[in-house]
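Ticket reopened. Same input as before:
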Amino acid sequence: MATSNPSFMNGVPELLVLRLLWGREMYGYEIVQAIREETGDVVSLGEGVVYPVLHALERSGAITSERRPVGGRSRIYYALSPKGAARLTELTELWSKITGAVQQVLVGGGRAGLV
Amino acid sequence: MATSNPSFMNGVPELLVLRLLWGREMYGYEIVQAIREETGDVVSLGEGVVYPVLHALERSGAITSERRPVGGRSRIYYALSPKGAARLTELTELWSKITGAVQQVLVGGGRAGLV
DNA sequence: TTGCATACCTCGTAGTTCTAGGCATTATAC
DNA sequence: GTATAATGCCTAGAACTACGAGGTATGCAA
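Engineering reply: fixed in the latest deploy. New output:
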């Protein structure tokens, strides 16, 4: 209810997951850590965020999964499908467009500066 | 469910409204149009988004309001308070941090390019 | 007097992230 | 040997947010 922090995170999990899967296969737990590392801990998505995203992406045909036993453990590796690649392109362009438009307002306008 | 487009708009309305009010007073209807114009129609927030944001910001003390009759009509002008200015700084920094982190993932990583 | 632009407002819905848990196996530390 | 952390998967519920649809009222032009 509070006036709390807008986290600017809408759609970001899907975008990041797709981007990470672009070129190499990865499993869920690995993706969670990769996001943390590659963003320098700025973005830190829990497993409760990443796994549902993966399942939704698989349902929509954007990624495919394959269970593999590794060192006695079982991992589910995900790979980007052509559909997922298209979705990635689409989202990346949208991201660029939106952030560019916001930046325009932040920089431009009446006074100059603050950014 | 998961079909749809993430709009990347989380928290953006609050940020844009605060930024527009930085330096000049504006009224709701004017803000709606300003966002449309300054973003080149990339971001188009309806009145159903802007007015609730304004009310929430006023409740939290980030902006103050003053009703003024203009040409027979009544407008409610909003002005940024010190608290709102601080909030704007905070949000701007967070925005910069998040988008920077996402950009890092989009650009960096295994392959190069796509952005 | 019919329509359009201005100017305000609220409610309900939908879509998302997040927290907080739970389960099971393996490696590490004491 | 036994507790603890790390790996690796999962779901359910709450909380938040943007959005569309709809409502009221005034002024101005055709």
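The two ends of chain A are 29 Å apart (CA to CA). The first strand of chain A starts at residue 26 and ends at 27. Please confirm and we'll close it.
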